[in-house]
Amino acid sequence: MKIDRLFGITVYLLNNEVVTARQLVQKFEVSVRTIQRDMETLCKAQIPIMSVAGVSGGYSIIPDYKIKNQYTSKEDYRYILMALKGLNSSYSNKNLENTLNKYMSLIKNEDERVFLDYSVSKEDGKVQTNRELLEEIISENKVASFNYRDAEQKQSSKIVQPLAVYYKWYAWYMLGYDINKNDYRIYKIARMSELKLSDRVCFKQHDDIENIIKNQEQEYSNTCETIEVWCRKDCKEILQEYFPNEVMNKDKEGNYMLYLHVPARERLWQALLLSLGDGVKIIKPLLYKEKLIETAKKFLSNYDIQ
């Protein structure tokens, strides 16, 4: 039917920059003359078809129209609005607020039943301030200097070209190129201080940023270690909540043996195990078992316990 073909041509043009008459003829199995008549019909329907001349020419839809008139349902707008509200709860940005207001004007939200609140990801004001400054430095393709405290509390000065900021593992991170080490590094923004624009320059050409992040995270994952942990059956669900993808084997008494793949230098997983008291026990490696015992003794030393 003609109406189906007209709809198909419109969608095809929306999804492609420039389409030749020959491509449309082959796609919809009609003559060139039919395609020409269809273009006239679409123009009369106020769809702004543009004819592009030259060897690479053909038919196109004006770019601004593509943004304003995509075939988007009410449900599509609801999902977009939900995602924007969730992002706005965690990411302070004036342009984002303006975008959110535009979409809120397109659809009433009285039927909302799903809410995304990522406000925990804002962390504190210092993190937000540093993140915003890093975004400015990234947009200007410049270099930053800052002091950094690593997971072992060691302080060092950094000269880095920031390349991207992203949120993961309940914290904001920055991917940067360390000029002094000539290598890429991932930095936790909460551990930065004295962040400022540097007068240093960096002329290095970088590959795809997303791939660099994936490679860096893979290198970090390779430094993680497997910890064998005995878990009493009443503590199983808590550990499953925090380690949902780890191997868990049930023993004859109904308790469990877990094999946790954890970052050796980070403290959160150690704090979680300590919080479960006698419900868990590290079996091996012996080093981490002794380390947890030492931490527990230091904690108890703060209290008058006989």
TrEMBL record:
Residues 11-59 form the Helix-turn-helix type domain. InterPro entries: CBASS_pafABC_assoc_protein, HTH_11, PafC-like, WH-like_DNA-bd_sf, WH_DNA-bd_sf, WYL_dom. Pfam families: HTH_11, WYL. Gene3D superfamilies: Winged helix-like DNA-binding domain superfamily/Winged helix DNA-binding domain. It comes from the Bacteria. Residues 132-196 form the WYL domain. This is HTH domain protein.
